[in-house]
Amino acid sequence: MDEDFACFLAEFGPAIDRRDVPPSTIARYRGKLPDQLLAYWDEYGWCGYADGLFWTVDPQEYEPALEAWIGDTPFMEQDAYHVIARSAFGKLYLWGEETGDTLSIFAPASTCFASPPDNDIDRDFEMRLFFGGMSRKGIDVEGLFAPALQHLGRPAHDEMYGFVPALALGGALTLSNLRKVKAVEHLVLLAQLAPLDVTVM
Fold first, then answer.
1. CB–CB of 96/4 below 8 Å?
2. How distant, in Å, are the alpha carbons of 10, 105, 133, 164 from that of 38?
3. 152 dihedral zone (left: phi>0; alpha: psi -120 to 50; beta)
4. How far apart are CA 55 and CA 91, in angstroms?
5. Strand, coil or helix: what is 49?
6. Can you tell me the distance from the alpha carbon of 6 to that of 159, in angstroms, rounded to the nearest whole number?
7. What pLDDT sits at residue 42?
8. What are the residue ranges in the chain where pLDDT is below 70?
9. Which residues neighbour 168 within 8 Å (Cβ) at sequence distance 6 or greater?
10. What is the structure's pLDDT at 120?
11. What gap in Å lies between CA 186 and CA 68, rounded to an integer?
């Protein structure tokens, strides 16, 4: 285990709800995603961390959400993106085949965070930094995860905490408005409620 992933595990704890990644899937993404990520998939599978606050995911399962959010944007003309991880609240972490870790989407607020690619960095090293730089505080939303976990229970690998009504429809950023919902379906729904607001980092 490299020291970056060791730091990630120290922060996020042991994995939950592990799903093994088929060799055929690893072969499908060879050359599209960094070998470092494929090595993590092979060793740890797709799973949740920190009681479901953060999830590594099957990019194929999230293609409908990816298409719903950026399918009609210039981003799709710039690179081929894949969803490699998500948060319990619907933040999507995208990886560009050529540009790496340059795009993320916080679906509840219809916000996209874009940063220029670093073409001088090794993509495998960049993937290590992606995990090594994660923090629970940076993923949590207004400190709502712990009370949501207690109130709603742990989300499964295909579930997330969604605001109902959605923030785009005037819903409030409060525990009482959180529900456990199917992740991909809810993310696709949110994409239809408000235009994507792009913030350049």
1. no
2. 21, 22, 19, 35
3. alpha
4. 10
5. strand
6. 26
7. 97
8. none
9. 110, 190, 193, 194
10. 87
11. 11
**What is the pTM (predicted TM-score) of this model?**
0.96
Which positions ≥6 away from 93 have C-beta within 8 Å? 83, 84, 85, 86, 101, 104, 130
Domain ranges of the chain: 3-200
DSSP track, 75-130:
HHHH--EEEEEEETT-EEEEEETTTEEEEEEEGGGTEEEE----TTS-HHHHHHHH
Q: Judging by beta carbons within 10 Å of its beta carbon (0-12, 13-18, 19+), is residue 195 exposed, middle or buried?
A: exposed
Phi, psi of 2 (to 5 degrees): -80, 160
- Residue burial 142-181, b: 16+ Cβ < 10 Å; e: rest: eebbeebbeeeebbebebbbbbeebbbeeeeeebebbebb
